[in-house]
Amino acid sequence: MDWRALMQPHRIVLMALFAAFVIWCAVSLRWDWIPTYAPLALEGLWRTIWLLAVTCVLGFLLAVPLGLAQAIGPWYLSAPARVFCTIIRGTPILLQIWLLYYGLGSLFPQIPWIRGSELWPYLRQAWPYAVLALTLSYAGYEGEIMRGAFASVKKGQLEAAQSFGMPRFTMFRRIWLPQAIRSVLPTLGGETILQLKATPLVATITVVEIYAVSSRIRADTFVVYEPLLLLALIYLIIAGIITLIFRRIELQVPAR
């Protein structure tokens, strides 16, 4: 650790202000509600992390073919992929969540074979629409990013692999995709943090995640600032962990 950089005057002032703020929060604010709502908060935290992980993984798996279709696909694949990414990136995610929940959510009950299927107990809940909306949102942004990543891979490497008779899928798996992912890792980390910040929007369709829990605490106890401060700290910690994970991945993935 570089102690000289850490002990610069402006950083010392910031650390002192932060310590004073923490002491003031601990002494002056109310925290007696924490034991009562801790189980609900843990459940909401787990749901937030679960939503983030599932939607990022599914969204990235969808973003790869979206980016590939835009980079090298024929017009009948590239055009729909481009339209999808344009619509997703051009509309608010809250609007997308509401369109799926209040649109499909009100349409499905009118279809008899859906109401009688094994999927109906899940489709009548809010979380599938939240997962779908967040997944499509992540895929729309990452699809455009992956398009640029695929286009940035040097053509000479691909031509050399073809000249040696490497199958196209093997070339994609061993050369094209790894290099594309390596080039966008910092952007992927930033988009994952933005996805974390989007998860509170699912509370508008009754999904109980950590933000919804803080709203419940404020409504029950009329304590306003304490739940919000604790919520901000939780998001900061999760964002910091995401940053560390992606930095570790960047260090471990070799540059080609």
Describe the secondary-structure layout:
Blueprint: H1 3-6, H2 9-28, H3 34-72, H4 75-90, H5 93-107, H6 112-115, H7 120-123, H8 127-152, H9 155-163, H10 168-198, H11 210-221, H12 225-252
Give the gist of this structure.
This protein is 81% helix and 0% strand. The protein contains twelve helices and no strands.
Written overview of the protein:
The protein is mostly helical and 256 residues long. It has one domain (35-252): MetI-like (MetI-like fold). It contains twelve helices and no strands. The chain is flat. It is found in: Cell inner membrane; Cell membrane.
- The percent range for strand residues is under 5%
- Give the low-pLDDT segments: none
Largest sheet: none
Mean pLDDT level? 87
Alpha-beta content class: mainly alpha
Domain ABC transmembrane type-1: 45-246
Pfam family, one: BPD_transp_1
Protein name: Amino acid ABC transporter membrane protein 2, PAAT family
Keywords: Cell inner membrane, Cell membrane, Membrane, Transmembrane, Transmembrane helix, Transport
